[in-house]
Design a protein that fits this description.
This protein has four helices and eleven strands. The mean pLDDT is 93.
């Protein structure tokens, strides 16, 4: 028989690493800045042994190189998808610090187009991010499978390393499993949006 398979409505997730020669001491500067905000009055903590920095890290001098990296990587993703746009900007950027045992619930990032996570400290046991299938009907019938595949799995655990930047659509629901390593997991989350969205892109398409 002849089978012509089509992959329709795909969801792209990009995993990007910047060479050490290009980063220099960027990661050390980022960690230092993140940890320095622990007592900032706008930082937030949760009962699950984790805390979040203010959401304006991209506006600080220490994050200038990081912001360029995120925006250049995001432009590459948009260009690959053949998206037409003028420019993009970071609308929010914050650090996530999770102690051993801490988790992060399922969530998405509304009112943006792309979201990103950069990993500064992610030891084994704290080096995954879980993406959940966004199709609401996928779990109604669950036949047994020989092995999980991207077509049948309802969750995908992406393994990350320090220095990895993961970019994904803002609507893709994700979570973080319990930190089973011996030290804090430190990551930076970002949201990216079109700069000209309100002025031009929201106009009627007809």
């Amino acid at each position: 028989m002849n089978i012509d398979k089509k992959i329709i409505f795909p969801t792209s997730v990009w995993q990007i690493s910047l060479p050490d020669a290009e980063k220099g001491d960027m990661d050390q500067r980022l960690i230092k800045k993140v940890l320095s905000t622990r007592n900032d009055p706008t930082a937030m903590s949760s009962p699950q042994d984790k805390w979040y920095t203010p959401r304006t890290l991209h506006e600080t001098p220490e994050f200038e190189d990081f912001g360029k990296f995120v925006l250049n990587a995001s432009r590459a993703c948009l260009d690959e998808m053949r998206i037409k746009y003028k420019d993009i900007e970071i609308t929010g950027c914050w650090g996530n610090i999770s102690s051993p045992g801490a988790t992060h619930h399922r969530h998405s990032h509304p009112n943006n187009y792309l979201s990103a996570v950069y990993y500064l400290q992610a030891d084994e046991g704290a080096n995954t991010i879980t993406f959940h299938d966004p199709r609401p009907v996928v779990g109604l019938i669950r036949p047994p499978t020989i092995e999980p595949t991207y077509e049948t799995a309802e969750t995908i655990n992406l393994i990350v390393n320090p220095g990895d930047l993961v970019i994904f659509p803002h609507w893709l629901v994700h979570s973080v499993a319990a930190n089973t390593s011996g030290r804090e997991r430190i990551s930076i989350a970002c949201n990216i949006m079109f700069s000209n969205y309100m002025s031009e892109m929201v106009k009627p398409m007809w």
